[in-house]
Amino acid sequence: MSPARPAGALLVAGTTSDAGKSVIVAGLCRAWARQGVSVAPFKAQNMSNNSFVTLDGGEIGRAQALQARACGLEPSTRFNPILLKPGSDRRSQLVIHGRAEGTVMAGDYIARRSWLRGVAAEALRGLREEFDIVVCEGAGSPAEMNLRHSDVANMGLAEAAGLPVVVVGDIDRGGVLAHFVGTLAVLSAADQQRVAGFIVNKFRGDPELLRPGLECVAELTGRPVLGTVPFLHDVWLDAEDSLASPVGRVVGLAAPPLGDAWLSVAAIRLPRVSNATDVEALACEPGVVVRWVDDPGSVLAADLVVLPGSKATVDDLRWLRERGLDLALRSRAEAGGPLLGICGGYQMLGTTIVDPVESGAAGPVAGLALLDVVTEFAPDKVLERPEGRGSAVGAGIAVRGYEIHHGRVTRNREAPLLDTVSGGEGSAREALWGTHWHGLLDNDRFRRAFLEEVARLRGARGFRVSPSTSVAGAREAQLDAIADAVEQGIGLARLEAVMRSGRAPGAGPELLPVLEARLRGR
């Protein structure tokens, strides 16, 4: 560690989920990395079905993979030692150091809290010994009082590791000033002392109109608002909360087409959709509009339908049938409408699913029977980063991706979508395609060939693919834009001072008496 460089660690908490913690952490990581500082991200516990495979065959939250890229690092399980993947409202798969450790209910998880705290503390300790700065991301809100005794990722982590805490709030939702004050107010006196200040995120408007409110927050809490980060319209790739994407939402910026025709993509919003970020690569292309949908009409009307991954394939297949989406998909397939299934979506397109692992189904479950494929689930999860070449589409084009699934294809009577060293991967029949590979559409040349095939099948002669769109380049540009906004809106020096002293300059040690009086109605 260089004595001339800033050193330490801090926790970026949020007043709510989706307040912008992941984005702020990514921006800080990129900003310090650009200065030559050795920096790493850390999220003790993440709850997300958007995940990524590390080189050593582990699994972490996709947001931490992006934050690692912001640091110039290869994603590692050290950056996210505990991952919860919800399979239902009450049940989640527990992933420790990248490996699935079974399924837990909420009560089971709380019972393991001492062990889990040790897992997180040990991982963070190792990172702090190796890197100048570790930027930790909280989970949800630190003010969830019912969970404080079992907390692993917020104030529990700050307490165990001696971390100063900055709290991010989303002003675009409204009520951010009350969120700041209220968050601090419900914390214990000891936890209040760990809060060094606040950060306003997603601000658009006149800073002078906001300034009196920020001064009031500082007066009431004794903590400064350390900065204001503007609303960034072009930040949408690898969104941590894609699971909450509303139906009808347009993914990306929908750039105008290069030719005189658009392509519409309908991504089916499954209840337990996983790796929803797969469709974002399509949205990077000019003239391609991607929407999340859940109705038969949208499925029938789109140029391309994507049936994405799922953490509960059998349950989500039942949901498809309850909404009549299975009939729409069949009608579409019979009419030659392009349809792509990814991972769990690919499994649904087959004839049969045998899943005693995730769903606990007693026997075989009938799939949509659009592809002659049988999938059987095994307890051990496939976690790989394979490479290959296009076959049915993009013949000969080099591709790579990543796999996260329990299901194995035990019968495939279709042509392979891809060629790999171990044989064919995926399935293809006319305008129907399926693959277990996530990230396949991130391969720029393959994606262009795929969209050209969709346009041909749909008779969209006026559609033109861009010869220069780069998904990797778009991610890098987004990270730099976030870093620019964080540097300008907050300033790294203020946060370095927080890490050195454990608190912001001038921050009060505990909640001010004036606020206590107001809370008591005086």
From TrEMBL:
Pathway: Cofactor biosynthesis; adenosylcobalamin biosynthesis. Residues 11-236 form the CobQ/CobB/MinD/ParA nucleotide binding domain. The keyword Amino-acid biosynthesis does not apply. InterPro entries: Class_I_gatase-like (IPR029062), CobQ/CobB/MinD/ParA_Nub-bd_dom (IPR002586), CobQ_GATase1 (IPR033949), CobQ_N (IPR047045), CobQ_synth (IPR004459), GATase_3 (IPR011698), P-loop_NTPase (IPR027417). Residues 265-446 form the CobB/CobQ-like glutamine amidotransferase domain. SUPFAM superfamilies: Class I glutamine amidotransferase-like, P-loop containing nucleoside triphosphate hydrolases. The active site is at C343 (nucleophile), H438. GO terms for molecular function: ABC-type vitamin B12 transporter activity; catalytic activity. Belongs to the CobB/CobQ family. CobQ subfamily. HAMAP family: CobQ (MF_00028). PANTHER family: COBYRIC ACID SYNTHASE, DETHIOBIOTIN SYNTHETASE. Catalyzes amidations at positions B, D, E, and G on adenosylcobyrinic A,C-diamide. NH(2) groups are provided by glutamine, and one molecule of ATP is hydrogenolyzed for each amidation. This is Cobyric acid synthase. It comes from Lolliginicoccus lacisalsi. The lineage of its organism: Bacteria, Bacillati, Actinomycetota, Actinomycetes, Mycobacteriales.
